[in-house]
Automatic annotation (TrEMBL), chain A:
Purpose of the protein: Component of the Mediator complex, a coactivator involved in the regulated transcription of nearly all RNA polymerase II-dependent genes. Mediator functions as a bridge to convey information from gene-specific regulatory proteins to the basal RNA polymerase II transcription machinery.
Name recorded for this polypeptide: Mediator of RNA polymerase II transcription subunit 7
Keywords: Activator, Nucleus, Transcription, Transcription regulation
Annotated Polar residues bias: 216-232
Family as reported in the entry's similarity comment: Belongs to the Mediator complex subunit 7 family.
Coiled coil ranges: none
Stretches the record annotates as Disordered: 204-234
Subunit structure: Component of the Mediator complex.
Main location class: nucleus
One Pfam match: Med7
From TrEMBL, chain B:
Record-linked InterPro entries: Med7/Med21-like, Mediator_Med21
Protein name: Mediator of RNA polymerase II transcription subunit 21
Protein localization: Nucleus
Subunit structure: Component of the Mediator complex.
PANTHER family named among the record's database cross-references: MEDIATOR OF RNA POLYMERASE II TRANSCRIPTION SUBUNIT 21, RNA POLYMERASE II HOLOENZYME COMPONENT SRB7
Keywords of this entry: Activator, Nucleus, Transcription, Transcription regulation
A Gene Ontology term for the protein's cellular component: mediator complex
Task performed by this protein: Component of the Mediator complex, a coactivator involved in the regulated transcription of nearly all RNA polymerase II-dependent genes. Mediator functions as a bridge to convey information from gene-specific regulatory proteins to the basal RNA polymerase II transcription machinery. Mediator is recruited to promoters by direct interactions with regulatory proteins and serves as a scaffold for the assembly of a functional preinitiation complex with RNA polymerase II and the general transcription factors.
One annotated GO biological process: regulation of transcription by RNA polymerase II
Main location: nucleus
Amino acid sequence: MNAAASPQQIENVSTFPPPPPFYKLYLNYDSDIDSTATTSATTDPSTSSTLSEQQSIPNIILPLQPPIPPKQGSNYNQFGQTYSTVDVLPTLDELDMVQLYPKGDIEPISELKKLNRSILFNYLQLLETLIENPSDFKTKVDDISLLFINFHHLLNSYRPHQARETLLSIMTEQIKNRTQSNQLLKKSLETCKESLIQTFNNLNNETEEKEKLSPTLATTTKEQPSTPQTINKNEELVKPTNWLDQLVNELSKIEKPQ
Amino acid sequence: MDRITQLQDKLDDMFYIFGTCIGVLQRDAPPVSFKEQNELSFSQEWGHQIGDMATQVIDTSKLIESYIDSLPGLKKTETEQYENLKSLNSESNDTLKELKLTKSEAIEMLKLVKESIRYISEESKLIEDQS
C-alpha cells in the first residue's frame, strides 16, 4: 500500500471497513449508547430474564423521527446528490448545447420527424466520410450526437404533456367502468324485481286456489300476523292478496327514489 | 411503458445499431482494389450482411417515425387538455352519484327480498302446521 494514500483510500481497502457515516442517521446514537450502558450495568447477564431483554430492545432501536419534507423551491440531498423540489427541464442553452429545432411554439411531430431524417442523413454522411477521409470522423460523430441530444430533449419536454394525456385516458376509463357497473347493477335490480313479483304472483295464485278448495284454510291464513315490517304499516292486510299490492307499491317507490 | 419512453428506447437502439454496423464494416469489410474502385465485387455472404445492416437501420428509422405519429395528444394544447380534464372530472362525479343512487336502491331491494323470504317461510310454516 502506498504510504501517501489518503484516509478515504485506506478506508476503502481495509479488511474490516467501518460502517458508512450515515448509519448515525437511523438511531439516537448518543442516548442509545447511554441506555445500553445503563442496561448492561444494572442487569446481570447470567440472571437476566428474557422479558427484561425484550423490554430494553425497543428503547435501543427506537428510530429517529423522519426529517421534515423540504419546502417548495428548496433543495434536498438524496443518496449523496442534491435535488431541487422544483422539477424543471433545463434548456439546451443552459446545457451549452445548440438547439436545432426552433424556439417557442413548434409542431413537435414534424420537428421530431425532421430530426429522425437528419440522423439518418448524417449517418450516411459519416459512412461517406469514413470512406473518403476517415480522419475527419469526429465532426460527423459530434453532429449525430447533437441530433440525438436534441431528439431526447424535445421528447423529454413533452413528458408533462403526456402525463396529462395519460390522466385523461385513466379518467375516461374510470368513467366507462363506473357506467358499466351502474348499468349492470340496474339490470340485476330489474331482474330481481321481476323475479320477486313473479314469485309473489305465483304464491298469490296458489293461495287463491287453496281458498277455493278449502275455505277454512283461507280463513286461517287471514289470521296470521307475521307479515313483513313494510307490510304491517298497511291496515288492509287482513285480505290475503294485500301484501302483494304492498310489495308492488314498495317496488314502485324504489324505482323512483326521492 | 409509455410511448415517449418507448421512442427514446428505440432511439437508443438506433444509436447502438449505428455503432455496431460501423464496427462490423471496419472488422469484416474485404480490401478494395485501387485500380477498379468503381467495380466493387463482394462475396455473396458479405453482400447479404451489408443488406441486412442497411435494412436494420432503415427499419428502425421507420419504426421511430411510426412511434412519432402515434404520440398521444400532441395535437392538443395545454389549455385544451385542462378543459378536457375539468369536463371529465364533472362527468366522473355525476357517474359516481348515479352509482351511489343505484347502490342505495340495491340495498333497499336486498332488504325487501330478505323480508319477503322471511314472510314466505313463515307463511309456508303456518300452512304446514295447519294442514
